[in-house]
Please model this.
Amino acid sequence: MRYNEKELQALSRQPAEMAAELGMRGPKKGSVAKRRLVKLVVNFLFYFRPDEAEPLGALLLERCIVAQEEPGGFSISFVEDLSRKYHFECCSQEQCQEWMEALRRASYEYMRRSLIFYRNEIRKMTGKPACTPTGSFGAVRHLRGGQVPAE
Model:
């Protein structure tokens, strides 16, 4: 996937769902963990040098696996290339769990599965299908005279 660098930089400045200084080690063999400011914004994980405003890079959290590594640490790898694994070190096991849950919830696929689940729950409770993006939810159809038809 290709991204415009300016758009990514603008996205990195948006309010983060989570942000913290973590130890981070890249996928290269023999790489050493370095302190990085890590920010979760939508489905991107941006990482910065602690004293800089521009991100060093970003990970798109789609088709990825978030796994516990050692106590207080987790990794992110990608289905397309499992050897491309990023390691993160947290201050505590609790912080590690919070990050892992947030990262798992950040993907489009997770949001899609959640939407399907809740639509099914609404259908079970009401006996009616939930509104869909292609359905009439939020749509206003105008007729002559400015009246909106009843659904």
Notes: Residues 134-151 have pLDDT under 50 and may be disordered. The CA atoms of residues 43 and 106 lie 5 Å apart.
